[in-house]
Amino acid sequence: MRAAALPRRRCLQALALGALPAPGAAPAQAQVTIRLSHVVARQTPKGLALERFSERVQALSQGRIQVVIYPNSVLYGDADEIQALQLGAVDMLAPSLSKFGRIGFPEFELFDLPFLFDSKEQVHRVMRSAIGKELLAALERQRMVGLGYLDNGFKHMSANRPLLAPQDFVGLRMRIQSSRVIAHQMRALGAKPVVLGFGETRRALATGVVDGTENPVSNLWTQRMHEVQTDLSLTRHGYLGYCVVVNQRFWNHLRPGDRTLVRQAMAEALDWGNTIAQYENDEALAHLRLGGGTRIHVPSDDQRQRLRQATQEVALGLQGRIGRQWIDRVHAVLAAA
Ligand code: LMR
Fold this sequence. Notes:
Layout: H1 8-16, E1 32-37, H2 45-60, E2 65-70, H3 81-87, E3 92-93, H4 120-128, H5 130-138, E4 144-159, E5 173-176, H6 180-188, E6 192-195, H7 198-206, E7 212-215, H8 217-222, E8 231-247, H9 248-253, H10 256-291, E9 295-297, H11 301-310, H12 313-317, H13 319-322, H14 324-335
Parallel strand pairs: 1-2, 1-3, 5-6, 5-7, 8-9
Antiparallel strand pairs: 3-8, 4-7, 4-8
Bound molecules: (2S)-2-hydroxybutanedioic acid.
(2S)-2-hydroxybutanedioic acid (LMR) is lined by residues 39-40, 46, 96, 152, 177, 198, 215, 219, 240.
């Protein structure tokens, strides 16, 4: 818990106005500030859900707990945000699930497996199962507390050509997140994966450092990546979601009542975020269609089937990294429907 330090002059003013407790009075509960950094724009499922969290925390604590949000990589980007959290330079993050493999949680990369999930309902079943709970609990290994999951949506492929069949990918440099599963997926399609921070992606596309990328439409649209990509192929080949994490030391210093309050505000915000995520992606696609500058391609069932076949080897090739038992358990949850 971080009590906001009042400058001496403001303390004196407050005393004069009677705003500070008189000596001997029961101490007021301390102010708490939660510093929250993320890499996407405000008008995205994650940006909006985290704003909702801030509003809910403030309302439930009657203004005593404040959240300061640093969006769009303005404070930390992909390269340094997790380190910033672990050092206590920020208190809370919501990285994509794809970014946990790099810091010692390769099992999180199971969510990146191409064509594993047909719907968000299936993803949610896994998240609500013992698998989702165990993944959150595992974060303690790196002194983080996992507060929950949030959807963005299904990813699509963009480049300066349609990407509808494996041969369309051959030779392309595709920007990816730092996930070995996604790297393997791009290689299986014949492309060269290039790991880059989200905040650097638009410029890399504009300058030809990379040729294409994958993301849900809300991320493509709000970063204006469509201005530097002529074609968007609605491949829906993989899921993108997030995990909210808090610095463990910060968490342990909160009063138990505040931890309950923060958990409640976050649970409400994540539930709400999941209800608007699809809308935000649909809106972004509608804007793209209206703009007319980007060609939008919908693969046929047959084309999707061929992409699926081309990437089938990914789960097999990376079961050693993710852990065979995790993949089997996910299949068991999905089959139990
Ligand atoms: C990306 O890096 O491509 C995205 O996962 C960014 C995000 O947080 O949505």
